[in-house]
Design goal:
There is one protein chain. The protein is mostly helical and about 270 residues long. The N terminus is likely disordered. The chain is about 50% helix and about 10% strand. Helix 1 packs parallel to helix 9 and helix 3 runs antiparallel to helix 4. Bound molecules: manganese (III) ion. The site of manganese (III) ion has 7 residues, from helix 3.
Length: about 270
Amino acid sequence: MENTTPTTNLVDRRQALKVMGLGMAAMAPAMAFGATAASGSTEEGQAARLALPESQIGYKDGKYVLPPLPYAYDALEPHIDEQTMRLHHDIHHLGYVNGANKAVSELEKIASGEGDAALVKHWERELAFHGSGHSLHVLFWNNMSPNGGETPEAGSAIDKALTRDFGSASNFIRLFKAASIAVEGSGWGILGLEELSGRLVVLQSEKHQDLTFQGVIPLIAIDVWEHAYYLKYQNRRAAYVEAFMKVIDWDFINQRYQLLKTGEVV
Ligand code: MN3
């Protein structure tokens, strides 16, 4: 499917990203891999660095927040159904937002000497679980688009990188689908940018935070918890993974890759 009929929302988003990308170019290359710009780490700058509109970053005024979906709940029909999107976004994702804020708050109490330091291991585990859950869901919603499609644009930066690191985009897709389908229990399939090598890697994540390769920043995350697909696909996870590939937003992924890698979108 070609990106020929973007919604107004998506047009605005693309234009905003393009402008932010150009603005961010002046800060490159110090912005790559989590470096904070000398000019300040505003939420706007942070969002631009991650190729997300500010409304999508999931953090505001010192708290994690649930961003709205970047499209209507039914926009991904028939591939991802409206009822699943409502439950998944409004209830499941919100639970991770609340859990992450709770963990941060309890760890702040321990830091200030008011909390129970004997519980530090518990709250650190909570932060890893809920914080990872929140950040992966933010990415997941933005990885999909009603105008999405199966393969990256030939010759785009992400297409070249996938070819470099996996042989071809179709080779990557084969590996990514296999990894996502084979996650044991609840988890995620992930394509990430690995900071030491600058190469792309495919990972599985169990729950949200297990099997992590530290230093990898996700570019694509597909949620393969049953709550992501069971209403429509029951136990057929492979069919759901195929459906995700029908709505995957390669335009966003290409921009995110370029911003993370070089700090600018060409
Ligand atoms: Mn989920």
